[in-house]
Design brief:
By secondary structure, this protein is an all-alpha fold. Helix content is about 80%, strand content about 0%. Helix 7 runs antiparallel to helix 8. The protein starts with a helix and ends with a helix. The model is unreliable at about 195-240 (pLDDT under 50). InterPro entries: MFS, MFS_dom, MFS_trans_sf. It is found in: Cell membrane. This is MFS transporter.
């Protein structure tokens, strides 16, 4: 363990400022999930399956929008890329709470597409400002900061929905997020290295390594890869043709982890709201989120101080298994206590996966890769929320946690099996 690395990193003013701005920008949307769920269930008097469908539509929009937003950041810079989000956040979430359920779905989709891309921007910028082993600590700090936000955001959302109005709460989310976007535009954290020559050298080294593998490969593989050239001589057309060359089997495995993590977290999120609301005290939902997120903070601190890497796939499997006991909870306090073991692994899963993407993808493609990583994460969320909501409506609140743990565990096992057979096939083709 090397906990001194946290102090060293926080003494770097731009990193410290980025983490703080990221926390502020994330806070409104940390309340949005609970607000949307309670708006559909309580204000609109509909079930958890329909509430989960709204959450799913938002995340589908984010999944479609994230790669495009990441590419815009790469191509036109952060400030110009954020302008559509600043405008749409204020407009969409001021209108959506007053709409019918059908129009709420449409507006939720549009809102998702133009969501302020805080996650990918912060992670991309940290990947530039922190290098080597510092990245693990930086990503862990970002995950910890996110958990601190989620310790307060959902509680505030529940209080706004139950004590004031979910309509007012969602409107405040839109306006606050828009203001957070303006703050990010003002701060304008770096998304590209200040030393382009160094970044280009890193990419050239990766291309040279690819060329060496192709040269040593059997004839049919070399023929299939004959268009690979060093970065210095690639034409614009060749660059477009090889636009997804960064998407390897290893990257695909990390994206599978992101899908599983999104599914696990969104299903647990709906399950927590459903169980606490069924007890007749929906305002107590903040107690469970606080315990869950506090555990994640502790887990993130421990993981960020570790010197050896742990596979994100193994971390996700452990978290899925530890989510299952949450189905045994009978009230708010027991659920809060049972959420702690799974919560301990939340930040490590996300930190480990982000670090892996940063290691596997070159800097010039990292914005797009982080966008696709975010899409994988939100796609899992889109799958988990409505399915868990349906299970809750049919069986009961405990079914949300059972669905979450079993589904994420199965995804890990299937992914590990596919990777094993893929690698075996690669070895046989190389003989």
């Amino acid at each position: 363990m090397n906990f001194a690395s946290y102090g060293e990193l926080l003494r770097v003013a731009p990193i410290r400022r980025l983490l703080l701005v990221g926390m502020i920008a994330r806070f409104p949307h940390s309340a949005a999930g609970v607000l949307l769920t309670l708006h559909v269930v309580m204000t609109m008097d509909m079930g958890y399956a329909k509430a989960g469908a709204v959450a799913a539509v938002v995340t589908v929009g984010i999944a479609f929008g994230a790669p495009w937003r990441g590419r815009r950041v790469d191509n036109v810079g952060l400030r110009r890329a954020l302008i559509p989000s600043v405008i749409s956040e204020a407009v969409i979430w001021s209108i959506a709470p007053h709409a019918s359920y059908e129009w709420l779905l449409v507006l939720a989709l549009i809102g998702g597409v133009f969501t302020l891309p805080v996650f990918s921007v912060v992670r991309q910028s940290l990947g530039v400002m922190a290098t080597g082993e510092q990245r693990r600590t930086a990503f862990a700090l970002d995950s910890i900061a996110t958990e601190l936000v989620f310790m307060g955001g959902p509680a505030l959302g529940a209080i706004l929905a139950t004590s004031l109005s979910s309509v007012v709460g969602l409107t405040l989310v839109g306006i606050s997020t828009s203001l957070a976007g303006l703050l990010l535009i003002w701060f304008n954290p770096p998304t590209r290295s200040e030393n382009p020559q160094k970044a280009a050298t890193e990419v050239q080294e990766r291309e040279a390594a690819n060329a060496a593998v192709v040269a040593a490969a059997p004839a049919h593989l070399a023929e299939a890869s004959s268009e690979l050239q060093p970065l210095a001589v690639l034409s614009r057309r060749a660059r477009l043709r090889s636009g997804f060359s960064w998407f390897t089997l290893s990257v695909a495995v990390v994206f599978a982890v992101a899908v599983g993590a999104g599914l696990l977290l969104s299903s647990s999120d709906v399950g927590i709201v459903a169980l606490v609301e069924s007890s007749g005290n929906p305002q107590e939902v903040g107690i469970v989120f606080a315990a869950w997120c506090a555990a994640s903070v502790v887990g993130g601190l421990i993981y960020g101080g570790m010197r050896r890497r742990i596979s994100p796939m193994l971390l996700l499997l452990a978290m899925a298994v530890l989510t299952l006991p949450m189905a045994l909870a009978t009230d708010t306090i027991s659920l809060a206590l049972l959420s702690i073991p799974a919560g301990l692994l939340c930040a490590p899963v996300l930190s480990s996966a982000s670090e892996r993407v940063a290691d596997l993808v070159s800097e010039e493609r990292r914005g797009e890769a982080m966008g696709w990583y975010g899409s994988a994460l939100t796609s899992g969320t889109a799958l988990g929320a409505p399915l868990a909501g349906a299970a809750i409506d049919i069986v009961g609140p405990w079914a949300g946690f059972a669905f979450a743990g079993v589904s994420a565990s199965l995804l890990v096992l299937v992914t590990l099996t596919v990777r094993k057979f893929s690698r075996r096939g690669e070895r046989l083709s190389a003989v």
